[in-house]
Amino acid sequence: MSQIPDAWELLRQRCQVCTACELCKTRNQLVFGVGRQDSPILFVGEGPGQQEDLQGEPFVGAAGKLLDEMLSIIDLGRDNCYIANVVKCRPPGNRDPKVEEQAACVGYLMEQIRLIRPKLIICLGRIAAGVLIQENYRITRQHGQWIQKNGIWYTAIYHPSALLRDLNRRPETFLDLLSIRDKINEVCPEFYQ
Ligand code: SF4
């Protein structure tokens, strides 16, 4: 007897055949997301890069390795968080996703958020923050600040790719990570136990 696909599988299948923007023409693999599907903590980047497109998983290249190291500082990882992107197919040449591509894809992310029901959403970089926190988000000025919307706490930190390019941003990101740990302890005191 065949099993009825659950909401996650149905959503993944819809993304798999999606042709809502031109990124479908150049993708090798869809990058749907990875992690614990009921985690209270969701990280959101902007879109897949070359390695992610080849492997079908978010943050697996050099930036992904750095993200894993950053998360491990505060005892987070792919086994206790969920990681997704604003767009699920790679923008060619690692360019930023266009506004129309973000608009075409963000509905899938919103459905993931409804299924995960996170208490904290951490945007990785200005594009994700511009979509989820505030239009024209200024990452240099606003990173590490918290706002609450519809019962979810949001913040943004520098994208790991930016931290690979600019080592000077790392000390402030370390402080942002400590702030994330403090917010987790405040909002989900059971998380680290
Ligand atoms: Fe569809 Fe999103 Fe891929 Fe565009 S980026 S084709 S909207 S899944």
Describe this structure in words.
It is a single chain. The chain has a six-stranded mixed beta sheet, with helices on both faces. The chain has helices spanning 7-16, 50-55, 62-73, 99-116, 126-132, 139-142, 160-165, 170-187, and strands at 34-35, 41-45, 82-85, 120-124, 147-149, 152-157. It starts with 6 loop residues before the first helix and ends in a 6-residue tail after the last helix. The chain is of the alpha/beta class and 193 residues long. The protein is globular, with a radius of gyration of 16 Å. The chain is 42% helix and 13% strand. The structure holds iron/sulfur cluster. Residues 15, 18-21, 23-24, 87-89, 101, 104-105 line the site of iron/sulfur cluster (SF4).
Order of helices and strands: HEEHHEHEHHEEHH
Distance between the termini: 40 Å
Oligomeric grouping of the chains: single chain
Contiguous helical run count: 8
The count of DSSP E runs of length 2 or more, i.e. the number of strands, is 6
* Sheet with the most strands, sense and barrel status: 6 strands, mixed
Low-confidence stretches: none
The rounded Rg comes to 16 Å
Helix content: 40-55%
The fraction of residues assigned to DSSP E strands is 5-15%
Mean pLDDT: 96
Shape assignment? globular
Q: Tell me the structural class.
A: alpha/beta
**Biggest sheet: strands side by side, in what order?**
1-3-2-4-6-5
Bound ligands, each once: iron/sulfur cluster
